[in-house]
């Protein structure tokens, strides 16, 4: 059992936070501006990190059907519903 455990690469199991890009997104609401980090996507598009929007501006985002929202960070799975792509550890499913 220990031999198998020693061979496992646990870094593949634990998701890592994407590093912020140098660019920032600026959201302007009325006369106020909010700076939001842009994160680099692993395979897909880059992301605007809106986690601080509620605490900064007391605003939330609205995305009916989760059509334009990344719901988690994953190092082992990639999903693109529009293209019908589902990858697990790099393999098409």
Please tag this protein with its features.
3-stranded antiparallel β-sheet; 2 helices; 6 strands; Rubrerythrin, domain 2; 12% helix; single chain; mainly beta
Q: How would you characterize this protein structure?
A:
The radius of gyration is 17 Å and the shape is elongated. It has helices at residues 2-7, 53-57, and strands spanning 20-29, 32-39, 47-48, 77-80, 85-88, 91-92. It has a 3-stranded antiparallel sheet. The mean pLDDT is 79. With 93 residues, it is mostly beta strands.
Spell out the blueprint of helices and strands.
Blueprint lengths: L1 H6 L12 E10 L2 E8 L7 E2 L4 H5 L19 E4 L4 E4 L2 E2 L1
Antiparallel strand pairs: 1-2, 2-3, 4-5, 5-6
């Amino acid at each position: 059992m220990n031999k198998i455990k020693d061979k496992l690469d646990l870094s593949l199991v634990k998701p890592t936070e994407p590093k912020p890009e140098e660019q920032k997104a600026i959201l302007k609401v009325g006369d106020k501006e909010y700076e939001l980090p842009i994160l680099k996507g692993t395979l897909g598009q880059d992301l605007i990190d809106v986690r601080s929007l509620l605490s900064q501006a007391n605003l939330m985002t609205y995305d009916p059907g989760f059509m334009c929202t990344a719901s988690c960070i994953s190092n082992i799975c990639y999903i693109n519903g529009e293209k019908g792509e589902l990858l697990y550890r790099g393999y098409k499913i």
